[in-house]
Amino acid sequence: NDVRKPSSQNLDSKGYKPNMSTEPVQKTGVVTWTKVWLLFTFVTNQSGFDTGITIVNISLDPLGTTPDKGGATLHFYGPNAPAPVFTGPIEPGAMWVNTAQTLAPGFQGYVIAECNFSPARGLAVLQRPGWHDTAPYLAEVLRVDPAPPPEQEIAK
Predict the structure, then answer these.
(1) What is the C-alpha to C-alpha distance for residues 71 and 75, in angstroms, rounded to an integer?
(2) How far is Cα 91 from Cα 109, in angstroms, rounded to an integer?
(3) DSSP symbol at 16
(4) What is the pLDDT of residues 11-24, one digit of tens each?
(5) Among the residues of the chain, which ranges form H helices?
(6) Is the pTM value of this prediction over 0.90?
(7) Which residues, 6+ apart, have CB-to-CB distance to 100 below 8 Å?
(8) First to last CA, the chain
(9) CA-CA distance, 155 to 89, in Å (whole number)?
(10) C-alpha–C-alpha distance, residues 35 and 149, integer Å
(11) β-sheet with 140-146: strand ranges across
């Protein structure tokens, strides 16, 4: 695993530092991640457009990453935003794909995906029906959270 030296500033009582970057968090020489937050900056199902959303669990690789299975919760912000949507489990090396038309009819705004596995990446494709006027973009990694202590382990 690639270990980067963290700053010791602003550590909480358990020795964790909030991580607002894609850098891993280190505590006593062990790097662990449990949650990746992805930002899809523009998602719409209005004016004849639809947005395809893809979330990929890239924990299956030749780099020695420990495969990490988990689901993601999509949080919608904007007009006609639905309640949060859970993807179900996304296996290591697999992807989850859906559209704004299916998930949030009439929605336009942004989406934050709370991925309970790491590493995670996302892709959105804005398009008119028939793949006209297609505009893909990568989701921004907002934050990577460290693993909680064992007594606070969250079910995935």
Answers:
(1) 13
(2) 28
(3) -
(4) 444 444 444 444 44
(5) 100-103
(6) no
(7) 43, 44, 45, 50, 51, 53, 107
(8) 22
(9) 12
(10) 14
(11) 85-90, 70-77, 108-115, 33-44, 140-146
